[in-house]
Amino acid sequence: MLNLVLFGPPGAGKGTQSAKLIEKYGLIHLSTGDLLRAEITAGTSLGLEAKKLMDQGILVPDSVVIGMIENKLNENKGAAGFIFDGFPRTVAQAEALDTLLEGHQLSIKHMISLEVNQEELTQRLLERGKTSGRPDDQNEELIRKRVQEYGEKTAPVAGYYASQGKFQGINGIGEIEEIFGQIVRIIEG
Ligand code: B4P
């Protein structure tokens, strides 16, 4: 089973590369960002709470996203593998994911980190904001806040996977196909 974590700051291209990996390897896509936006669209109480935080560029509580991932793992027993996109975003989430996977006799094979500088991230997200309708993509100050949250809470997750020998960093700037080729080489390496 191929279980991957796709990692990187907001706008690094995790969603973009996930779509290509799913097509090539038939993996189940678990994006906590997409799951939270679905809750917001459905108007659930969880979605209403999450929206308040997401609209400020702040991470939602660990317990909320861990619970969502647990449900999805249980719903997809027998899958060819999972791609975790935008999760884990804190060390507590990474530890919880390992525990959940162990309960299913599974583990993460690679943690692939897309490295992109702040200037490029801001450009990409403002560009996406013109069409995505996402409030968190339409304001430069909010984008800066998301990148700051990433630096403070999420970047340490890289060390967690490095200590397990699973961290693989790649340059996330360049042609989408070329970046995808680098990811495939890691997987098939
Ligand atoms: P997410 O939905 O995870 O989204 P993201 O980080 O904004 O984007 P991603 O990296 O997937 O970028 P994409 O491929 O789309 O998070 C949103 C919010 O949800 C968070 O701020 C947080 O509040 C909350 N949240 C989510 N998960 C959480 C968790 N686990 N714990 C707590 N809170 C959580 O690419 C962006 C743009 O760049 C696109 O327009 C794309 O076309 C473009 N692009 C991609 N690759 C490119 C390339 N190589 N060159 C040029 N442009 C490229």
TrEMBL record:
Gene3D superfamilies for this protein: P-loop containing nucleotide triphosphate hydrolases
Known role: Catalyzes the reversible transfer of the terminal phosphate group between ATP and AMP. Plays an important role in cellular energy homeostasis and in adenine nucleotide metabolism.
InterPro entries in UniProt: Adenylat/UMP-CMP_kin, Adenylat_kinase_CS, P-loop_NTPase
Protein name: Adenylate kinase
UniProt KW keywords: ATP-binding, Cytoplasm, Kinase, Nucleotide biosynthesis, Nucleotide-binding, Transferase
Cellular compartments annotated: Cytoplasm
NCBIfam families, per the entry: PRK00279.1-3 (NF001381), PRK14527.1 (NF011100), PRK14528.1 (NF011101), PRK14531.1 (NF011104), PRK14532.1 (NF011105)
EC number per UniProt: 2.7.4.3
Reaction it catalyzes: AMP + ATP = 2 ADP
Domain notes: Consists of three domains, a large central CORE domain and two small peripheral domains, NMPbind and LID, which undergo movements during catalysis. The LID domain closes over the site of phosphoryl transfer upon ATP binding. Assembling and dissambling the active center during each catalytic cycle provides an effective means to prevent ATP hydrolysis.
EC top class, as a word: transferase
Residues covered by region (NMP): 31-60
Residues that coordinate or bind ATP: G11, A12, G13, K14, G15, T16, R128, G174
Known partners and oligomeric status: Monomer.
CDD domains recorded: ADK
Binding site for AMP: T32, R37, I58, L59, V60, G86, F87, P88, R89, Q93, R134, R146
HAMAP family (alphabetical): Adenylate_kinase_Adk (MF_00235)
One Pfam family, short name: ADK
Organism the protein comes from: Aquirufa aurantiipilula
GO terms for MF: AMP kinase activity
Pathway(s) annotated for this protein in UniProt: Purine metabolism; AMP biosynthesis via salvage pathway; AMP from ADP: step 1/1
Family according to the record: Belongs to the adenylate kinase family.
